[in-house]
Design a protein that fits this description.
About 70% of the residues lie in helices and about 5% in strands. The chain contains eight helices and two strands. It has helices at about 5-10, 15-40, 45-55, 60-70, 75-85, 105-115, 115-125, 130-155; strands at about 90-95, 100-105. The chain has a two-stranded antiparallel ribbon with strand order 1-2. A hairpin with a 5-residue loop joins strand 1 and strand 2 (about 100-105). Helix 3 crosses helix 5 (about 75-85), helix 3 crosses helix 6 (about 105-115) and helix 4 (about 60-70) packs across helix 5 (about 75-85).
Length: about 160
Amino acid sequence: MTRPTAREENPGSARDYNRIETLNRIYKRNDGIYASACQRMHLPASVFDVLYALCITDGLTQKEICDACFCSKQTIHSAVARLQKEGSLRAERGSGRSVRLFLTPEGRALADRTVAPVIEAERASLATLSDASFALLARTAQALNDDLAARIEAIPF
C-alpha cells in the first residue's frame, strides 16, 4: 500500500497546494530561463554568476560574489579559478587580507558577449512594470521569502 500524498492527507487545502504549485512553476521557470541562457552560452552557471557580479561591480572579493549570487564559497572559488586560468580575471591584494577580483580585457569581452545582453534583457523586461507594480512585486516576494525562510529554519530536521 502506498502512503497518501500531502494533498491527499489534507484535501481541504486545495487552494494552498494550487498556490504552492503556481509559485514553484514561477520560480522553476525563472531558474530554467537562466539555465537555458547559460547552456546556450556554453558557460557553467557559476561562471556566469561570477561574470554577472563583476559586470555589475568590478573589484569584488569572493565573499562579496558569494553574497551577490547566493552561491557557496566552493562554487565561487571553482568558477574564479577557472576564469583566472582562462585569463578572464585578475586578482589584486586589497586592504588587509582581502583579494579583489577584476575582469581582464578578455574577461570584459566575455562578459560583454554573454552577461551584458542578459542584463539588458532584464532591464527591458523590468521596464514593462510601473514603479508601483515593481515595488509591490518586490515587497511581496521579499516578505514571502523572509517568512518561508523563517518557517523552514524553525523545522527541527
